[in-house]
Amino acid sequence: MQLLQPLRRLSDWVNQAAIVACVACVMVMLGISFTAFVYKLVTGSSLSWTYSLARLFLPWIGFLSMTISLRYGEHVAMTLLVRSLPRALLTVSAGLCLAIVALFGALLLWYGWSYFASARQVYMVSDQIQVSAKFTAIVVPLSGAIILLHLVQGFDLLEHFIDDDTLIEELIESNDGETRL
Length: 181
Description:
mainly alpha, two-stranded antiparallel sheet
């Protein structure tokens, strides 16, 4: 367990960096959109590059926010089904959930790296603004690596698997005394 503590701190640090990156991407998108709005108000004509440039940040926001929601246990969960499971199945389902998340992260990393390595296109935002497709492609394997890193948190990732107040371990203990019909 001594090995997991530095990895958990790294996971927390990476999560904070992902939050900052997401906020920065949203602010850049808002800045671009606001620039287009003000330009249209002042001149009456539109800038051709604002929409194309702003949408390049959407993959970053989507993929990084996915890793942030995983870290905080805010992912989609089937609460009613999980609450009705006996202890043995609850433990298995929680472990299975982590295994599926690990598989998803590994697939993002594996196939995302191939996608990134083969990205040769250039997005023509305008005549003067050209952005390599690698800018958006790198977020796929990066998010896979972050997901795999967050798995060192273990069942803490599934804290909200049940609800906001009950940890999985507490639910497992509470199911020990129940009788089923």
